[in-house]
Amino acid sequence: MKNFKQNLALSLTTLIMFLLTLTAYLIKQISKLVWKLRTPLYKLAIFILVINSLMGVLTNPAYAPKPAIAMDGLTSSVQDKYIFTYATKFQRPDLGKTVSLLRYQLACLAHKENGFHANDNCGDSGQACGMYQFHQPTYVAFRKIMIAQGLTDHIGSRLNDQDAVETTAWAITHGHESDWGPMNLGMCQ
Prior knowledge:
Elements: H1 2-59, E1 68-71, E2 74-77, H2 78-90, H3 99-114, H4 123-126, E3 128-129, E4 134-135, H5 136-148, H6 161-172, H7 181-184
Helix pairs in contact: 2-3, 2-6, 5-6
């Protein structure tokens, strides 16, 4: 019986050593295979990331082409036409608000506030909406002043690009440019 126990212990020890050796060998072979495949795997990972990114861009409505119109011989978006129209209407060269500067500021604000509709979410916990992220009471108050001054004939909507551009152009040239964070931070000067 003693020999049987010794042989069994020796057999188990040999089996364990064999399994450890086999495991080490397999790990080494797998490591070699992974090392050989590192470049193709890296390229495959990059390819998958690129395809995934393209699919995100292609299916995102924010990247859909905007309607184009002719303006000054150039092709431009509808928002650009509104910006040009109201920068021209509300320019104040006496305050340094030339058409060029006002066009730049309106486009910059539209980009900073919601990316020309790339991000149509309402900010400030749902209170600030539209291309220029107006709070409804502020927008309505500005429009009422504009109506009293004979500059417009309707309240309109902060979600309507034309109304929002008109209101923002008026506000920037009538002492309210600091109502927008990007203007305060010097991002659109």
